[in-house]
Amino acid sequence: MKDSSCIFCKIANGEIPSTTLYEDEDFRVILDLGPATRGHALLLPKEHYKDLFDLDDETAAKVLIRAKRIAGRMRTALGADGLNLVQNNGEAAGQTVFHFHMHLIPRYQEDHAGILWKPGSTTAEEMEEVKRLVDSQ
Ligand code: 5GP
Ligand code: ZN
């Protein structure tokens, strides 16, 4: 299904032009307009899924295979030293466009892109509680 009010549906399906690195019947990979680093790309399904929780299993599996292949090409072509896969779900997690997308962010030594988090702390009790809550679902 497409959502006629969704900008990424329009981009993924070619109604709005984009710099496309890859396209097949399921996906389009485009360059991000506000890149964290040189070559920052977005993998978009052509169907509208709001976020990870909305994805069907078949599409979810295809996403990682496609991300892996395009990431390999990007790393070689751009001479990247590393690459982050980032995927935000929900406003609290930084999602701003509510059409599932995977960020492919090539990394370069000393690029200073602020993508990694500052490690926090936890306790054995908290870890046990988290485990118990997840196990109970
Ligand atoms: P999010 O914050 O939802 O994970 O990521 C949304 C991303 O989409 C951002 O990195 C933003 O720069 C990018 N973006 C937003 N609108 C457009 C657009 O119209 N075209 C392209 N190519 N990227 C966009
Ligand atoms: Zn959409």
Summarize the structure.
By secondary structure, the protein is an alpha+beta fold.
Total beta-strand segments: 5
Q: How would you classify the helix and strand content by structural class?
A: alpha+beta
Molecules bound to protein: guanosine-5'-monophosphate, zinc ion
Kindly provide the radius of gyration, computed on alpha-carbon positions and rounded to a whole number of angstroms: 17 Å
Anisotropy-based shape: globular
What are the segments in which pLDDT stays under 50 over at least 5 consecutive residues? none
The run of helices and strands is HEEEHEEH
If helices are DSSP runs of H or I spanning 4 or more residues, what is the number of helices? 3
Query: In what order do the strands lie side by side in the largest sheet?
Result: 1-2-3-5-4
- Proportion of β residues? 15-25%
Mean pLDDT: 97
What summary fits the major beta sheet?
Answer: 5 strands, antiparallel
- The amount of helix comes to 25-40%
Rounded to the nearest angstrom, the distance between the terminal CA atoms is 29 Å
Give a quick set of tags describing it.
binds zinc ion, binds guanosine-5'-monophosphate, five-stranded antiparallel beta sheet, single chain, alpha+beta, 137 residues, 3 helices
What does this structure look like?
The structure is a single chain. The protein is α+β, with helices and mostly antiparallel strands and 137 residues long. The protein is 29% helix and 18% strand. It is built from 3 helices and 5 strands; from the N terminus they run H-E-E-E-H-E-E-H. It has helices spanning 7-12, 57-78, 124-135; strands at 20-23, 27-31, 41-45, 82-86, 102-107. A 5-stranded antiparallel beta sheet has the order 1-2-3-5-4. A hairpin with a 3-residue loop joins strand 1 and strand 2 (27-31). The chain is globular and about 50 Å long. The two termini are 29 Å apart. The model has no long low-confidence stretch (mean pLDDT 97). Zinc ion (ZN) is lined by residues 3, 6, 8-9, 48, 99.
